[in-house]
Amino acid sequence: MSAVALTILLLVFTSTIDTTSALSYRGYKQEMKEQPDDVLIDLIARYGHTMLRAKDELENSKRTVDFGLSRGYSGAQEAKHRMAMAVANFAGGPGRKRRFEGIML
């Protein structure tokens, strides 16, 4: 008897979950329908302009980071050296610690 009651309870519970998720989805679709078309078109246009500007900035940059991979072994060594120097000059990195007014950084 308890197995039958458990099965019925399980069926009622799963049907409740399906209807609540369907109702929330319908509410979401209704929210999307309420948005004015001009707002969405403006948003898409601004996003397109941002993408085009980012593309132009990437194409027009003179110096790009290639880490020496296109220049062979000596280029890779140079890139490693530059990265090590940048880390060494960083105040929290390895190397000499700088002091300012008695405070060690």
TrEMBL record:
It comes from the Eukaryota. The keyword Ion transport does not apply. GO terms for biological process: body fluid secretion. GO terms for cellular component: extracellular space. GO terms for molecular function: diuretic hormone activity; G protein-coupled receptor binding. Its main location: secreted. Keywords: Secreted, Signal. It is found in: Secreted. Residues 1-22 form the signal peptide. Belongs to the diuretic hormone class 2 family. This is Diuretic hormone 31.
